[in-house]
Queue: 3 jobs
Job 1
Amino acid sequence: MNKDKTMMIAIFTVVLLIPSQFATAGAPVFNTSTSDAPSISVRVVEAYYADLDNDTFQDDIYALVRFSLSGAVRYNFDYYVTLTLPSGYNFSYAFAINTGESFELNHYFFDHAIESGNYTLSVLVVLRTGGISTDSHVYVFDPPGASTGGDPTLVVD
Ligand SMILES: [Ca+2]
């Protein structure tokens, strides 16, 4: 057997062994200090438009979303965020997250603020630890101009 084949077999063996060593670590570990089932809540703390990418156009969206989890040590959940423009056009994104008790996520939607009027940020989480549970939150914000709708406007280069 040549040296390359021996090295390939050694690497393959290590790759096969790694998942079995961490199989128990990846299993759900529940917090025994509480009788509550694992749960999750999600809130949009704030959202607004700004020039986040420094291209001189106020056409970017910032959103801060807070996740609060309880009842387990580790959590595996799906996160869905949708930005709805005043015209009803949607931008949707999905994430699979594995984390500890709580965290916040800063969202930067570059070049998404292209219409005047109300913007709607909708978030949904689907907890997959200890069964399935969900939470959602909707946050409406308006660029300058209040109810009449003002900037930002579509910028065509
Ligand atoms: Ca910008």
Note: Confidence is low (pLDDT under 50) at residues 6-34, 153-157.
Job 2
Amino acid sequence: MTTADAAAPADPLSGDEAASGFAARVRTETQEAHDSAEHSAFMDDLLAGRLDAQAYTALLGQYLHLYRVLEAVESRFESAPELAAVLDPRLHRAAALEQDLAALTDGAPVTPPTPETAEYMARLSDLQPEEPERFFAHHYLRYLGDLSGGQVIGRLAVRHYGIPETALRTWRFEGIERLKPYKDAYRQALDSAPLSARQQDAFIAEASAGFTLARDLFEGLRQE
Ligand code: HEM
């Protein structure tokens, strides 16, 4: 079953972790790392409206560097059976980020990566075909994150910073109309992915490391 034919049954993640498989385990075992990223000082300030459109634009600038690497590295995993059910070009963000940044900065050059973003990029560049579960973890983190919290970030950027509708492509997934069934199908793909127990443990360790890198990226944007 691929995420493309997303006819998801009832959400297995409605708090009944015991009832389901690897997806629920990933969610449970990375929840703390997720919350630590979600509630980093920069993100709390951004979502509360305590920053400005420049801060929001700076975040997108760093994300562009990240997604360019992630989406370039993806080609190493195109034949990995572990990822066959989730790789989907509709998820890619680099082009949407480029368009939003051009709109928000009148085509100004993209700011260079911060040291924290450079470290995150290095981790992604280091992903090798022998370890598809590590790439899978970053794919899950970034894209399920953008299909979740990302929608919140987009909404609040409009409300607090007057970001124009024309500069919200980063959070709009062309061709994926209904996000919840898509996310549920992604979780089902996680449950049925041919990952060994060792690979599942490595996936969770890499996802936790990814959340920490995401939090550090946010903190790297804080103006002292
Ligand atoms: C920035 C503030 C953030 C907010 C407000 C937020 C909010 C949320 C919410 C509400 C969900 C649950 C969605 C659902 O049940 O379908 C969620 C899930 C998720 N978020 Fe976040 N999030 C944030 C940051 C992040 C970051 C930085 C990442 C990754 C780098 C991330 C990755 C994820 C992932 C992978 C899921 C799916 C969990 C699962 O169902 O397995 N989030 N987020």
Note: The chain has one domain: 11-222.
Job 3
Amino acid sequence: MPHVTIEAPEKLPLYIQQEMVPFPYMVFPVYVNDRDLQTFTEADHYDKLVGVVLRRPADSTGDRPGEVSEIGTLCRVNQIKKISDGRFKVTLEGLTRLRILETEPAAAITLARCEVLSEFVEKSMVSEALVQSLNALLKISLSHGKPLPDDVMKMIDYIDNPARLSDLVALYVNLPLSDLQDLLETVDPLERLKKVYVHLTNEVQRMQVKNEVNTEVNRKVGKNQKEYILREQMKHIQEELGEDDPKASDMNELRRLIDEAGLPEEVKKIADKELKRLERINPASPEHNVSRTYLDYLAGMPWNKSTQDSLDMIRAEEILNEDHYNLKKVKERILEFLAVRSLKGNMKGPVLCLVGPPGVGKTSLGRSIARSMGRTFVRISLGGMRDEAEIRGHRRTYIGALPGRIIKELFRCGSNNPVFMLDEIDKLGQDFRGDPSSALLEVLDPEQNFSFQDHYLDVPFDLSKVMFITTANQLDPIPGPLKDRMEVIRLAGYSTEEKLHIARNFIIKREIEENGLADYPLEFSDEAVTRIICEYTREAGVRNLQRTVGSICRKVAKEITQKKEPRTMITPEVVAELLGPKKFHNEVAAEQDRVGVVTGMAWTETGGDILFVEATSMPGKAELILTGSLGDVMKESARAALSYIEAHAADFGISADAFENRTIHIHVPSGAIPKDGPSAGVTMVTALVSLLTDRPAKRGVAMTGEITLTGRVLAIGGLKEKVLAAHRAGVRRIVAPERNRDDLEDIPENVRAELEFTFVNEAAEALAVAL
Ligand SMILES: Nc1ncnc2c1ncn2[C@@H]1O[C@H](COP(=O)(O)OP(=O)(O)O)[C@@H](O)[C@H]1O
Ligand SMILES: [Mg+2]
């Protein structure tokens, strides 16, 4: 029969405390200060044994409050260790129950006379049944999720000592101190076993009820809440893992962007409201996308982002010169314009408008201006734009609505003070969808554009820091109110010589690089370039020149990939070989002088051009036929010419009957191209006189000038373009109005050197030169 006998001295140091009820077999620590430690050091004299006993709490409702219990535990002091807070950790091992017979204070400690209580159980049916039931109950309790420490669990199956089992279980069940003390004082093991059994039964019942409630609750919690709970858990897990919930982090990111975007107060309010709305919209719905895109635009607009202006005019001039050959006057005007702006410190005032034929460098000048000011460059082409919404955007209520081009480009460039080029403003359309020019007016007007309203954005945006530059081929088609806001700078076009320079210094280098020939030493001879200029292109600018140089480069590149010997020099012969027969002939030099055919000069959208005025007569009604798509002004100019000649017939040596019963026909070839303007007046007079006096007119003389009924020659526009075009076509002599003499200095030196000029006041002077 298991049976515990422990020898103990008659007297023992007694540790009286209020925290715990130690049981036999239990190893436990107590934490004590210096004073209490003496009890345990004293144990050295008592086989390392002490008594530990509970003083009943003074406020306890149980019996004998405040008294030291009669029954305590005999413990062995296993270890004493000083711990960091200055106290001592004493490890004790419970051995057996102890009855305290008498206490006597001795100096700082208490000594007690005690008696060890031996426990002895007679194995019986009752004890066995009780042990079995307790084991079963413990297992049920385990299944309800109350774990036992591993070693205890192993022991349970082996324990056949009911005394020990009851003490173990007493520790396992959560019991208040008073119940524990009661169990300690229940010295009869069988009696104790019964009490523990009751306690454990209660505990298991409590657990059963709790689990039932839990399952019931779980069953009732709907799918939604379950999802919510799962989400919360996921969030938790993601946080643990350092990952963020994608939607939440997306919204946080958006909020951060909006907070940092520097929105004006009013706009910020709108954005915050929209943000709140967005959070409530189901991410799968299309509306979510609409709201999201809108907020992206609000957050992404450069509300307060601008680039630092560089106001160094010397550097600006250098940059303009780096990018463009010549254009002296233009550059000067641009620099003046920039200087005024930089002195004033704002962009208010007229808008720069670069007017000139295609390919003379308007767009690329705009780019250079941006570079010289240190600003970003954006460009939109207004050509063919008919819908106001393209400028101003659509309201968000439209499906697929987006901001207009102005806002879109500012969003894209990320700065609120770019150089903003409105290209081809003369090609702006207008129809039932609204008038884009009125929207543009608001954009360009410094009095209005600080609060530009885009329909999509729906909040004002300040455009006053933007530097707008417009370009046009012609001034006339630009709506008046827009024209009024502009400071016009004209670019006329280049002579062959100038084009050669541009090709040599800019175009060829660029095209060679762009077509992947940077590693091949390809050169163009000047003669080759001149040949391209004169025989393969005819234009005021250099766009086709650039294109043609590019196409030669591509052909050379193709030859290289075909493993042919790479060319190193492009000569005029190579040009002919690669490009085929020449595209343009020298109309003037190739033709003979004829009666009634006179060379004129016209000013067109694409620069200047030469034209031929042909006059002929035939028997018939006395009338004037005009053909060749002539405009009203040109027709009137023809009639005026005829009237002037009839009136002064004698002076020109024309017989008075030359007009009787004869139909006179004036035709201007290239009949499909509309022509207009008064500047062909002198040319028509000359053609008619040549016809009527039967004297051939010199092809190599090109003329321009408006004529009055009295034969005076009036000034015309675009002399430089006209002269350059005539020069290109091989004309040797120019007849122009005296009043245009000052324009001569615009014409490049070398062109001037190759031409003879006659400035005339009267039509008669022109006749003298041409006939
Ligand atoms: N004076 C010049 N110096 C150097 N390159 C020029 C000059 N004028 C025009 N170019 C070049 O010619 C090409 C066409 O010019 P672009 O600006 O597109 O003409 P536009 O806008 O007037 O039609 C560009 O590559 C430009 O750099
Ligand atoms: Mg352009």
Note: The pocket of adenosine-5'-diphosphate (ligand 1) is lined by residues 324-327, 358-364, 471, 502, 506, 541-543, 546 (CB under 6 Å).
